[in-house]
Predict the 3D structure of the following.
Amino acid sequence: MKLRFLIFFLIVLSCSETVNPEYYEDWKLRRKNALYAEDGFLNLAGLYQIEDGKHKMGSAEGNDMLMPNGFPDNFAEFTVKDSIITFKYYVPVLFENKLITEISYNYFEDFNFFDRGSFRWFVHIDSGVIGIRLRNFNHPMLKSGLEINHFTYSKRWVVNATFKPFENPKRAVIPNFQGGSYYDIVPGKIYFNYEGTEYSFEPTVRSSGRYFIAFGDLTNGESTYGGGRFLYLDPPDSNNNMTIDFNMAYNPPCVFSTFTTCPLPPRENILPVAITAGELDYNGVLFSSVYE
C-alpha cells in the first residue's frame, strides 16, 4: 500500500511540473493573437523614417518611400517641418470615410491614418523613431502558420522581487534596434535573488501602469534572440514587493519583421545568468521579407 501511495505521489508531482498552468497557456494564446491583430506586427509592409524636408512616395524606383507593387509609380509627396506633416496625394485616398488628396496636421497631436485598398499608413512614433508605418491587412504571409517555441515552463523561474524607488526618477538613455537611442524615465530598481545571487533590473513604466523591461542574458544569440527579450510586470504592492515570471519573457517584434521599432536592453538590464524560460528565438521567415 505504501509503495502504491509513493508511486501515485510521484506521478502527481511529475504532472504538476509538466502540465502548464492555465494562466500561462492563456498568455501564450493572447500573445499570438496580438501579433495577428489589426494593430499587430505581422501585417507590417514598410517603415520609412522621416525628417524635415520633402519626400516622395510611389512604387517606382527613385521614390524616397518605396511603396509595394499595385501603388502608382508616383503616388504622393509629403513635407515635414518640425512636427507638421503635409501629404499631397496624386490619387485620392480614404481618410475618415472620405476621399481626400491633401491634408496637413501635427503628428504629435493627432493620430491620422490613410487607406488604399488593403493598405493603411500613418506616422508612427515609438522607441526614438519617427516614421511612416505601412500595413497590409491582406499581407500574403498572414495565412501561413507562425510557430513560437518556448523553454519548458518551470515554477523556479517565478521569483519574488523588491522594488526600490530612486529618490529622483532617472532619465535614462535607451538604445534602439535602428542604431539610435531615446530617453525614458526609470523610477527605481527591481532586485531579485536567483540561486543565492542577487540581480537587478531598471524598468520603465508604460501608460497602462505596468512595468516594462527589455533585458539580456547569457542565452542571447544561442537559444534566444540576440537582441534580448521583453517582460511586463505588475507594479509593486504597498510594501514594494513584486513577482517576476520569466516564463512570460517574450521576443521583441524585430524577430518577425524589420519594419519595427524595438528598444534594446540597456547595460543595467543585461544579466550575467542564463534565463532558460520564456520564448526561444524565432527561426522562421521574416514577415518583412515579402517587401524587401
